[in-house]
Amino acid sequence: MAHHPLVVAALSVGLLAPLASGMYSSSSPVLQLTSKNFNEKIIKSNHASIVEFYAPWCGHCKNLKPAYEAAAGNLKGLAQVAAIDCDDDANKPTCQEYGVEGFPTLKSFKPGKSGKPVVQNYQGPRSAKGIVDYVLDLIPNHVTRVNSKTLEEFLQKNNETAKAILFTKKGVATPLYKALAIDFQGAITFAQIRDKETDATELFGIQKFPTLVFLPGGAAEGVVYDGEMKKDQMFTFFSKFAKPTTGKQHTKEDKPVSSSSTSSTTSAPPRPTFDATIPAVPSMQEFAEACGKKICVLVITPPVAVPLIAHEKTNAYINQAKQSFHFFQVPLSTLPGTFKTALEIKESEKPQMIAVSTKKRWYVPYTGEPESHEAMESWIDALKMGEVHKKKLPDFRPEDVTPPKAPKEETPKKEAPKEEVPVKEAPKHEEL
Predict the structure, then answer these.
(1) 230 partner at 20 to 30 Å CA-CA among 90, 211, 388, 420?
(2) Where is this region: Disordered (predicted)?
């Protein structure tokens, strides 16, 4: 039986419609992006985002899909997990703008202090956990830490402004609380007080932790939140008192700050990152001893020397950061292989950074682009606030932290040359 041409056309549209929507369905937790809504959803957002640039025919993209959707589900309400179909002609200008050359390409967008997002390539594990851990570190922190001494000043400042105070046993703000502070940024001031601040807890009559107290502002009586400490319920509670902010305002001239340039309009050399005045560490043992109670930041320089005289802005910031941390420089070639493997130090032609606390036995690798001042500044700020995912520092034997000794130069002798014994301490190239 022959079908009417219109019926055939309708069937064809129906069969092709799912393909037109890309790889992710409308019910997917992954945010669907196009060139039309990219600026509004990502660039103007107050929230941290990770974006997958993909093509529906790409096998690696299909393999990533389950983990990416799982990550989106875990990060729901905390950060944005989004995707854009670069195979769609309408989206190709956006994909080209961000220098996408292969699929899938994952890039993170973190709101910056200047009002422009910092863009970084995601180079971590293509797993739900890897993506979630990475994105959680990107969530901006607008939560004020208050103690018994600063409480009165906090309450008096902008007295008419609504304030939310969380009394908790945690030392740092959780991703959930930080996300709420972003949702109501500019409408509600969020603060956090430790349970150890007894004067503050007694003033408010706090008996259990966590307890959330909301102060509407002015002479209005405070309200104790009695619901579940979950995003949807807390969001609904705050919405009764203030309107959530959906994004930040940008001018048409605003463009994101990219940590890796996608186009070059000048022949100027790339901006260097690290301060050349950072002292060198003579041995890993002395490095560990020098850290003491402070956090140490190890700057690993590549085998081929690169200019490390810092950009003026970066130089000033590192010098300021030295008040909080010890900075050391060490050549990659002097690090034992066991040390590099344990602390995720790679064979690289770019400088690397890793923060270490020998007292509390943890380390945090810097995963941003070495050329990005904004990304490095954000990482150091996160270290100061404790807003980083710390990894357990493995135990080392003395031989593991002592760099290999350089072979002594021998004066040529007339006798027959002796057979040389290989230096056992020499680091081996390890595939990571």
Answers:
(1) 388
(2) 246-275, 391-432
Same domain, 129 and 16: yes
Q: Assign 70 to helix, strand or coil.
A: helix
The Cα 226–Cα 192 span in angstroms is 17
Domain that holds residue 50: 8-136
Q: Name which residue leads in pLDDT, 309 or 79.
A: 79
Query: Model's pTM, two decimal places?
Result: 0.66
DSSP code at position 307 = -
- Tell whether the torsion through CA atoms of 412, 413, 416 and 421 is positive or negative: negative
What strand order describes the sheet that includes 188-194?
144-145, 188-194, 162-168, 211-215, 223-224
Q: Are residue 361 and residue 391 in the same domain, yes or no?
A: yes
Phi, psi of 81 (to 5 degrees): -115, 115
Structure tokens at 229: 């400490």
> Which residues have a Cβ under 8 Å from the Cβ of 117 and sit 6 or more positions away?
42, 43, 49, 109, 110, 111, 256, 257
Mean pLDDT of 75-83: 96
Phi, then psi, of 399 in degrees rounded to 5: -70, -15
Q: Is the pLDDT of residue 16 over 60?
A: no
Report the candidate in 136, 137, 140, 132 with the shortest Cα–Cα distance to residue 73.
Answer: 132
Average the pLDDT over each of 120-129, 161-170, 200-209, 388-397 and give the range with the smallest value: 388-397
Q: Are 53 and 86 in contact (CB under 8 A)?
A: yes
